[in-house]
Each structure stands twice: as structure tokens, then as C-alpha cells.
Amino acid sequence: MTTRSNAHGGRRVGAGRKKGTVIKEPTAVMRIPQSQKPIIADFLATYRLNQSTDKQTNHLADQPTVFERPVVAPAKRSWPLFSSKVAAGFPSPADEHVEKRLDPNEFLIDDEEATFFVTIQGYSMIDSGLLPGDKAVVDRSKTATIGDIVLAVVDGEFTIKLLAKTKQGGPRLLPSNQSGEYQPIEIKDGMQFEIWGVVTGSFRRFK
């Protein structure tokens, strides 16, 4: 008797879910907007590199650790923007002092799909007005130029610094703190370096 195999049924060699993953921890399936796929892919690539980085050789400080996305298509809301200037106190609520109405989303965000927020850690950028706990607005659609504040990845670690260049024309990251506690980061051959986005603004709460 000749036994024939079913070409369309049964378990095939190599079929099914592959064991193991490049992310060294349990994973879960989730749906994300198609437009956000490149941002998530970049973040995971950096995360995998960070997993293999020896923490004892970490030469960066103040790396932001909280990444947040703005709400997609936020509701349009605006508040009065007063034209009168006051040293302290609250301007007159009289209608003639209202210059226009301001939507904070439109003021802070130029490209909604390319923008995200990171929480500032440490004091290396205080002279640029970035304090611990502040939310920095990062726009990935903008091209960084010398003098911009950027979110960069150096050897698998995120850092927010001023973009500068060496005498040889190579990239250099500078702190914005006159205390001398924080040193410039020199980007040398063999280092992994990428500018993730340009910091276009920030916001904070006092209470």
C-alpha cells in the first residue's frame, strides 16, 4: 500500500511562532497607527541596543526616560491671550485687553504626527530653561542645525543637549549649565550616534 501525504494539511517544518525574540522579555501584540510605525521601530532598535550596553560604562547623564505622544487630533480649545503686560498679578479681564485666543496645541506643535514629549531629567540644560520634570517638545520632522537643542542617541542612551561641531567639523553635544559639572560629549569614530529630533519648546506645571 502506498501512503500519500497531504500537501495542504499537517504541520510543516519551520511553521508556527518562532521561539525567542530580540527583545529579551515577554512581548505582546498591539495595533499602532501606520504613521507611527517608523517612530516605534526606531525606539525599539535603540531599546535593543540599550539592553546590550554595559551600564558601568555609561558616560551620559540626564537621559530622558519618559516618552509621550500628543493626543491625535486634539479638540480645538483656546483661552484668552491678554495684550496688556503686568509685572505681577493678573491682567484686567476687560474684553478690550484680549488680543486674541490662543490654542496651546497649535502654539507648541508644528507637525502633530512627528511630535512627541520627553520628560527632562537632571540639570544639564538649565541655562536653556529646561528644568527637571519639564516636558520637552521634540519634532522629528525638523532638520537639526548647529545651535539647536536636540534629542540624540549616543551609544544607546538618550540625551538632550545643544548641537555643536568640532574644529574638524564633526558633531559635538554641549550641556547648557555654567556650573562646569557637565562635560561636552565628543562624538568619536566607532560611537553610535543619531539625532532623534529637534526640541522646539517645553512646558511645565508649578502646581
From TrEMBL:
Record keywords? Hydrolase
Q: Which residues form the Peptidase S24/S26A/S26B/S26C domain?
A: 80-199
UniProt key word Hydrolase: yes
Q: What is its EC number?
A: 3.4.21.88
Please indicate if the UniProt record lists Hydrolase as a keyword. yes
Report the GO molecular function annotations.
serine-type endopeptidase activity
What is this protein's record name?
LexA repressor
Q: What is the lineage of its organism?
A: Bacteria, Pseudomonadati, Pseudomonadota, Gammaproteobacteria, Thiotrichales
